[in-house]
Every structure is written in C-alpha cells, then in structure tokens.
Design goal:
alpha/beta, Rossmann fold, 19% strand
C-alpha cells in the first residue's frame, strides 16, 4: 500500500508515519522541514511550506492509495486561512487523478463550544473561533473537490496525548497535582476529552484502509472524568518500584485529596485574576474543569470495528514517568 501524509513532522503526522511504516507500507511524508521527519524504512521525505502549496511536487501524491491531510495551522491566526483553507484547496486539486482516498484530519472544535451535551457526527457544526471556522471550511472543500475524483473520510479528533506529545500542557497539570496546587471546580463528574496517541493512529489507519469509511465522518475521542485524571496522576506520582526492579513494574500510590471550589466563586476569581500577571486560574481553565460534553465514538466502533486499546489513564501514567525523570 502507498500512502501520503502531510504534516509528517508534527505529532499526529509522525504517529501515522510510524504506524504505516510498521505495516510495511510505502510512505511519502511531507513537512515544511523534511529533516524533522523520522527516517524509517519505506519512508520518502518531501519538504514544502503549505503557505506556498505550489511547492508540493506531484510525486508526493502520485499513485497514493490514501492521503492523510494532517498539516494545519493551529496557533497563528493570520496563517489559518492560507494553510487550513487555501492550501487544502490547492492540494485537493493537485491530488485529482493521482490518489484513491483522502482522509481529512479535522477537529471536534467545528461543533462549537458546548457546556453540557452529547455531540455526535450528526450534530450540526457551529464553529466559534477562527481555527474552527478554517477547519470546517477545509472539510467542506474535501466533500466538494473529491466528487468524481476520489473517496474521502472526515476524522474529527479530540486533543491527542501520550508519551510522544511535544507540548507541555499535560506537564503543567502534572506539576500542579505534584505541588498540591490543583483543585476541583464545581460538582463531581466533569469530563475531559482527549484521545491516546496509540488509539488515534489506529483509528486513522482504519479510516484510510477500510472501504466502509468512504464518505463517512468520525468523531475520535475518549471521555475521562477530571477525578479519574487527577487520580491517575496522583497515584502515579506517589508510586514506587515493585519488589523486583527487573520487572519494571511499580506499586501505584494513592492520589491525595484535593479541595473542591464551587463554580461560581471560581469564575469570579478567574475574571478578577485576569488583571494579575501569572494568576493561575483563568476562565479557560474553569471551562475545562467544569465541562460535561461527550463525543461518543459509537459510529467508528460499529462501522469499522475500532476499539480504544489504551486509556487516558495509561497516557497520564506514561507522562508522569517522563515528568519524574525530567524533574530529577
């Protein structure tokens, strides 16, 4: 099988490069700087900046059974239209007659900001921020430009976490738990939505290789309560080696108790704290610690036989192990 992957030096793209290389597939991997692409057997590296999509050679797409479009601009708003929309349009046109299937890596953010909801693939998109608008525009382009040229699948993942992740957001949470600066906000049962790096790679490979995925949209997420996340982190932080060091097993500790703050006072503190540089409680963090939104993966489980082989707690325990090594 021959696959083409954009954003191949990024976190998600690199997971897919590894997954398909491990299958023995022929992989064309594209990134702005091709030196950031892992050199693996069967992987051909291409360098091009999607701000200038005309730099992408036709050879990148030629005879690809599936294209995974992972590349995206997630932080710099002035570039989101150019990368997430304009470049996607140009790549789709270039791929016509050269590829068999297109997997568009979209985002759950296209559904908008919900506080208490069960969001499925049938929920109408209501993008709020510019990034979400640009990702939804890319999804629409895929449906339009693929007609009569190739099949497609829209994959909408939650935030990906695991030991290979590069940003420090989870390390900040781990540090807060470690230093007893973490607190619960509002009633128990708030939900965080992430997906383990192993699971997202497995799900995307199914989207790229299973005929049943053609023309379908799949949400990719794992619901985990805030209590379960804090518990996994706290227990891992207080773990100790098992009786046989050679086994690399640990005896899990016990998560410490944390203060629970009512949501109303927490929101007031976050608003007032916005005027204080470095104040740890922000409106965004209060939202994250009180959200009760679920994104079920029933459709991909039913249609493609997908299962979550690794839990969010598994990812957190692995990240705690890295945190402890780096803190020495």
């Amino acid at each position: 099988m021959k696959v083409a992957i954009t954003g191949a030096a990024g976190y998600l793209g690199s997971l897919l490069v590894r997954a398909h290389a491990a299958r023995g597939d022929e992989v064309n991997a594209l990134a702005r700087n091709d030196s950031g692409i892992e050199p693996l057997p069967g992987v051909t590296r291409f360098g091009a900046d999607l701000v200038r999509p005309d730099e992408v050679p036709d050879a990148f797409f030629e005879n690809a059974d599936v294209v995974y479009h992972c590349a995206a601009e997630i932080a710099r708003e002035p570039l989101m239209q150019a990368v997430n929309v304009d470049a996607t349009r140009a790549l789709l046109e270039q791929a016509r007659g050269r590829v068999g299937h297109w997997v568009q890596v979209s985002s759950l953010s296209v559904y908008g900001r919900h506080r208490h909801a069960v969001v499925t693939e049938d929920t109408p998109p209501q993008p709020g921020r510019l990034y979400a608008h640009s990702k939804l525009a890319g999804d629409v382009l895929v449906a339009e430009k693929s007609a009569g040229a190739f099949s497609y699948t829209l994959a909408r993942p939650a935030g990906v976490i695991g030991p290979l992740m590069r940003n420090r957001s989870m390390h900040a949470l781990i540090a807060a738990v470690d230093r007893r600066r973490f607190c619960y906000i509002g009633k128990p049962g708030a939900i965080a939505n992430f997906i383990h790096e192993r699971n997202i790679a497995e799900a995307l490979v199914l989207c790229g290789t299973r005929p049943e995925a053609r023309g379908r949209t799949y949400n990719l997420s794992q619901n985990c309560t805030i209590e379960a996340m804090a518990g996994a982190i706290g227990a891992a932080l207080t773990s100790k080696p098992g009786p046989d060091p050679r086994s690399h097993r640990v005896e899990m500790g016990v998560c410490p108790r944390f203060v629970r703050i009512p949501e109303g006072p927490a929101r007031l503190a976050a608003r007032l704290g916005g005027f204080i540089p470095g104040f740890p409680l922000t409106t965004g963090r209060v939202d994250a610690l009180t959200s009760r939104v679920e994104y079920p993966t029933t459709r991909i489980e039913r249609e493609l036989g997908f299962t979550h082989s690794s839990s969010i707690e598994d990812a957190l325990r692995a990240l705690v192990a890295l945190y402890r090594v780096q803190a020495r």
